[in-house]
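May I ask you for just one protein sequence along with its backbone structure tokens in two labelled lines?

_____
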Amino acid sequence: MTTAPCSWYSWEAARPTVKVWLRETCGNDLCVLEEYEVCERVSEMASVRAAIRPSEVLVAFMKAFFVYLNQISSGVAFLRASRSWPEGIVLKVMDFNFDVPTNRLLRALLVKQQCANISAHRETEVRSPAIFEEALPRKLDKKRQKKQIKLRMQALRRRGIFCSHGMRDMFP
């Protein structure tokens, strides 16, 4: 536990040199890296946290940065390749526990994809005000649709997949 404050101080001292190195290495892609908080995620890796001096932090960051990008790119390549696979196979393959950042990314992307699929299946109906006889069956249909969406969400939760609060607003 005594290394945590030292590593935090070392990281803060090395941060400007890390930013300069990132500008030289990444150029125009630096804003994308800042948007996805890549520096913070790489700085939390064990190899960077273990460094004590700022110069050691910079060297450890350089190595960990490329390892992190490699993990993320392999995860994205896996997702692209697995588009045609059934969902159950993808989940079983992911249970083999890839590197932790890759697995987190894959699970987050899979959840977003599943939530988007559920919301895409929802049908929007335009209610005609002139026909009141059909109002009751339509209302019952909408209730049935809400119940189906709720059951799908519960099935996803049972499998350990949770949609974010922003995704809930897409469902009636």
Summary: The chain has a mean pLDDT of 72. Residues 54-81 form the longest helix (28 residues). The chain has two domains: 3-81, 108-168. Residues 108-168 form one domain.
